[in-house]
Inverse folding.
């Protein structure tokens, strides 16, 4: 099944460098340039003319898009990526899985910032949270033998600040918008923890369009929030699906541009047709996209 929801990460003129970096430090990962800026970009984008626009990252079969843009945004830990190292993927060898995790951690941590030390915790025998040199956050965890197999990559949304305590509400809202979607396991805080109240989500899981996601309410005050540094691109079958999701999700009119929107929780989405790549090859397509808020396929 094609991946319907693709995380997009914002980079400051260095998406090509990032693609090479992730290809080296993440297991089973490759990168390729999938789109370039046209030669005749607007004047304010002149330094991007003919340059890389999007680098596609394939992480063990999971697609992440790296957007080559400016300094306006940068990824932050409000949306991170959980990497589960399952011994089953290493011939049921726990030590081999642990070594692979440690090697990946060392690569991601080089030039980065440790958010939670790689260590044993009550919820995991081997876990760490790191922000890499580009600002992208990764949570690495060694799978427990008794747990069901999990995908290697799962995005996690962390709710804090003005949306503290909204994790389950948001997940329920998102589940209502997609096919093959449901809430999964939810663990609640049993006592106040930082800004998290009793019954806020300590860890939760949900599925959208057959893809796993996780969510949590933050246990610490945060200085960052959801923004365009990490956005969720939804590939829609037709204009009707674009219209439906746009109407349901868009909550910040000033954030609407080129298919981008921000929802009521501040999460950024890109609502695009699944053949956007083909549309962008048509004459004048880039100029058309730059004038649009919601993508209207018939304009291309």
């Amino acid at each position: 099944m094609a991946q319907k929801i693709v995380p997009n990460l914002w980079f400051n003129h260095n998406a090509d460098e990032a693609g090479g970096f992730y290809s080296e430090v993440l297991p089973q990962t490759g990168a390729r340039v999938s789109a370039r800026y046209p030669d005749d970009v607007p004047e304010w984008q002149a330094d991007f003319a003919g340059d890389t626009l999007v680098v596609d990252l394939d992480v063990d079969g999971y697609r992440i898009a790296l957007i080559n843009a400016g300094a306006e945004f940068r990824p932050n830990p409000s949306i991170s990526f959980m990497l589960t190292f399952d011994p089953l993927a290493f011939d049921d060898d726990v030590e081999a899985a642990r070594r692979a995790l440690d090697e990946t951690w060392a690569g991601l941590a080089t030039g980065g910032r440790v958010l939670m030390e790689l260590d044993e915790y009550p919820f995991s025998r081997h876990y760490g949270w790191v922000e890499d040199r580009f600002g992208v956050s990764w949570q690495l965890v060694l799978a427990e033998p008794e747990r069901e197999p999990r995908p290697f990559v799962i995005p996690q949304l962390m709710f804090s600040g003005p949306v503290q305590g909204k994790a389950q509400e948001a997940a329920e809202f998102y589940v209502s918008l997609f096919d093959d979607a449901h809430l999964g396991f939810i663990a609640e805080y049993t006592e106040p923890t930082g800004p998290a109240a009793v019954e806020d989500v300590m860890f939760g899981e949900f599925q959208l369009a057959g893809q796993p996601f996780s969510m949590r309410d933050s246990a610490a005050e945060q200085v960052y929030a959801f923004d365009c540094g990490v956005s969720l691109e939804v590939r829609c079958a037709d204009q009707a699906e674009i219209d439906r999701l746009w109407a349901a999700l868009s909550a910040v009119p000033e954030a609407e541009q080129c298919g981008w929107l921000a929802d009521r929780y501040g999460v950024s989405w890109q609502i695009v047709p699944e053949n956007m790549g083909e549309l962008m090859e048509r004459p004048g397509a880039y100029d058309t996209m730059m004038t649009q808020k919601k993508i209207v396929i018939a304009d291309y």
